[in-house]
């Protein structure tokens, strides 16, 4: 498979494994543990990972400045840097220009390799057009301030098709994994991008970690083929085997996760027909167990009432997938702060308005509180 990204007069060879910079280890006060992050980046660079994806919002604004510091130790031409215009907070062209200028300072660079309109929906796309942000970024693109112009996407397929056909994009970034083949852009979006010749960057290949530790009975089809392969490696290979996929992003928050992915991608093998069938059967089994499709992206945060929505859902999903009631009860009663529990939800709906997965968050919070309290 050819993982080059080409257009007239320009060719890049980003690594198939890309580093998503939104899930680094954190300290007790939720700030990034920069020493551990440096160790992870150093190991990734050593192993040949060359694509680093950050954004204005990641780690509450810490990610861009930190990546600027960590990557400054390496020659600029040795890695590909991707960041994004935070469309969700842009209300004027002047604001967009100000943020764009600050991103160069934060990331300590004079150009970006990849620049994206962040988390586009049909509505935010129209807003960026009306404010002149798209025209501004197209001009910046022509001036060489970034090399490849794209967008990341969280909405329904119809909006994706409208945006993808609206201009000649250099690339696009979509959520895709073997459990979410028909959610958001999905496989239909993948096929359309392939038809139009738009290279794909894939996010959430392991569904926010949900596909990393399924119960053994779910994994039987995969274990029969390769008892030593990790669940994450199957998810990564499923995505990386799709035609047109140039980068598979992973938010690697530990050395164990990084090494597992390096092992998968160091000598990448596309799935065989037999292996693909086994992954499809695993997906069918898992679909019967998951309580809620939250990926932990945290776009719903902060909650006005202090509810940690993704962490509530994470515990609930563990109950559904793993069924380890004693362990889940201990986590719910002794480790999870009461002030952050679902019971404080006042059903304001702010979270549902921005959820990329379009989840029924309010009803799910009420249900999970009942189930976890009953353990």
List keywords for this structure.
8-stranded parallel beta barrel; 375 residues; 10 strands; two-stranded antiparallel ribbon; alpha/beta
Description:
It is a single chain. By secondary structure, the chain is α/β, with parallel strands linked by helices. It is 45% helix and 14% strand. The chain has 15 helices and 10 strands. The strands form 2 sheets. It has an 8-stranded parallel β-barrel, surrounded by 6 helices. A two-stranded antiparallel sheet has the order 1-2. Helix 6 links the parallel strand 7 and strand 8. It is globular and about 60 Å long.
How large is the share of residues in beta strands?
Answer: 5-15%
Number of H- or I-type helical stretches: 15
Largest sheet, spatial ordering of strands: 3-4-5-6-7-8-9-10
Query: Any idea what the shape is?
Result: globular
Helix content: 40-55%
> Largest sheet at a glance?
8 strands, parallel, barrel
Q: Give the distance, in angstroms, between the N- and C-terminal Cα atoms.
A: 49 Å
> Which sequence of SSEs, written as H and E, runs from N to C?
EEEHEHEHEHHEHEHEHHEHHHHHH
CA radius of gyration is: 20 Å
Helices and strands: which structural class? alpha/beta
SSE layout:
Blueprint: E1 5-7, E2 10-12, E3 17-20, H1 34-46, E4 51-53, H2 63-71, E5 80-85, H3 93-107, E6 112-120, H4 122-131, H5 133-142, E7 146-153, H6 157-166, E8 171-175, H7 186-196, E9 200-203, H8 216-225, H9 231-240, E10 245-250, H10 255-266, H11 273-287, H12 309-322, H13 325-335, H14 350-354, H15 361-373
Parallel strand pairs: 3-4, 3-10, 4-5, 5-6, 6-7, 7-8, 8-9, 9-10
Antiparallel strand pairs: 1-2
């Amino acid at each position: 498979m050819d993982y080059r990204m080409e257009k007239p007069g320009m060719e890049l060879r980003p690594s198939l494994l890309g580093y998503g910079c939104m899930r680094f280890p954190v300290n007790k006060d939720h700030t990034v543990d920069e020493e551990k992050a440096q160790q992870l980046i150093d190991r990734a660079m050593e192993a040949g990972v060359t694509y680093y994806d950050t954004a204005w919002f990641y780690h509450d604004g810490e990610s861009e400045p930190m990546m600027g510091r960590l990557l400054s130790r390496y020659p600029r031409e040795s890695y590909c840097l991707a960041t994004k215009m935070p469309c969700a907070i842009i209300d004027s062209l002047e604001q967009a220009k100000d943020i764009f200028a600050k991103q160069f300072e934060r990331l300590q660079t004079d150009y970006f390799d990849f620049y994206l309109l962040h988390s586009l929906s049909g509505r935010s796309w129209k807003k960026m057009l009306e404010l002149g942000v798209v025209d501004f970024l197209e001009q910046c693109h022509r001036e060489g301030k970034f090399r490849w112009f794209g967008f990341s996407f969280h909405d329904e397929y119809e909006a994706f098709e409208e945006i993808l056909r609206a201009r000649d994009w250099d690339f696009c970034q979509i959520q895709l994994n073997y459990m979410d083949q028909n959610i958001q852009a999905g496989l239909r979006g993948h096929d359309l991008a392939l038809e139009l010749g738009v290279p794909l960057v894939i996010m959430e290949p392991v569904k926010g970690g949900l596909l990393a530790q399924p119960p053994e009975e779910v994994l039987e089809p995969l274990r029969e083929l390769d008892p030593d392969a990790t669940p994450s490696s199957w998810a990564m290979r499923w995505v990386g085997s799709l035609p047109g996929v140039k980068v598979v992003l992973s938010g690697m928050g530990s050395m164990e996760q990084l090494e597992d992915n390096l092992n998968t991608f160091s000598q990448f093998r596309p799935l065989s027909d037999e292996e693909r069938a086994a992954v499809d059967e695993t997906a069918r089994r898992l679909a019967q167990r998951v309580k809620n499709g939250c990926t932990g992206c945290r776009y719903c945060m902060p909650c006005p009432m202090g509810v940690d929505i993704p962490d509530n859902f994470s515990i609930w999903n563990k109950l559904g997938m793993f069924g380890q009631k004693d362990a889940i009860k201990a986590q719910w009663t002794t480790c999870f702060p009461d002030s952050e529990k679902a019971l404080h939800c006042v059903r304001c709906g702010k979270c549902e308005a921005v959820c990329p997965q379009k989840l029924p968050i309010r009803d799910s919070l009420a249900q999970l509180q009942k189930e976890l309290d009953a353990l």
